[in-house]
Amino acid sequence: MRFAEFFEADEVRLVEPLFSDLCYKEMDELLLQIPAERSRILIDENEEILSVGLEGEYGTIDASCFHLRTPSDTLISRLEDMDGDIFQVTRREFENSVRKYYSDNLINTSEIAPDDLNPERLVITRDLINSFVGNEHSIHCLDCCCGTGIGTYLMREMGINPLSYDNDDALLARGFAEGRLDPERTMWIDGRLIEAYLTEPVDCAFGFMFGELQLFNHDIWSEIISGVCAVSERVMITVGTEPEACIIKGWMKSGGYEPEIWENDRDPIYDRWVCSIG
């Protein structure tokens, strides 16, 4: 469903420039600056506010999303002084539609990275996923730093519908172009902040071919992995070399986890070493 349909409107513009902006309270100021006399409020099945739209003089609607943050008191006060309509939708429908809204924007504005798919890698990665989840397909799963969506594609093929994220818009654009990533289930965010963008518990998390881990990027990768471990008790991360796997194991142990590393000899290059917890 198009986002605008929730408001029974032809078009709704979200004032937050990027999906990653949705968790920041400062974004309320963008909506407060818009002149309007009528509001349209979208609530979920529990009557909690999901979005607020302000209707301009010519029927244009500018809106903000509030599934990742709470509306400010200033915004609530303004709404109380305005005439408005209330609409209702399930939270799941809303969240999927918001992700699609921003994914469509990314598709239209980002350069597309070269395709990185080695067809032989599909069998190897599928085996790794199966070894970790078995027949558990009705699970809430993450594809962390998903790149062009090879892991996501395989999980979807297996009946798992993961939530995928990455900070590289060109890689995501390639994933959308190839049909490996689902616009409703993909987020363009900084992986270090994943906890701020989740609204339900995670059963397990995958990260395929992390790295390359170098001294200059250790801080970034350690925060990304810390974020993954904070949201899921079961994590599988693959890298290309044993030293990288040992570094990740050290980071996990320092966080109080009990990781294991092992060599995956199915491929000499991709997903060669695995580090997992849970």
Automatic annotation (TrEMBL):
Domain of life: Archaea
Protein name: Class I SAM-dependent methyltransferase
Species whose genome carries this gene: Methanospirillum lacunae
Organism lineage string: Archaea, Methanobacteriati, Methanobacteriota, Stenosarchaea group, Methanomicrobia
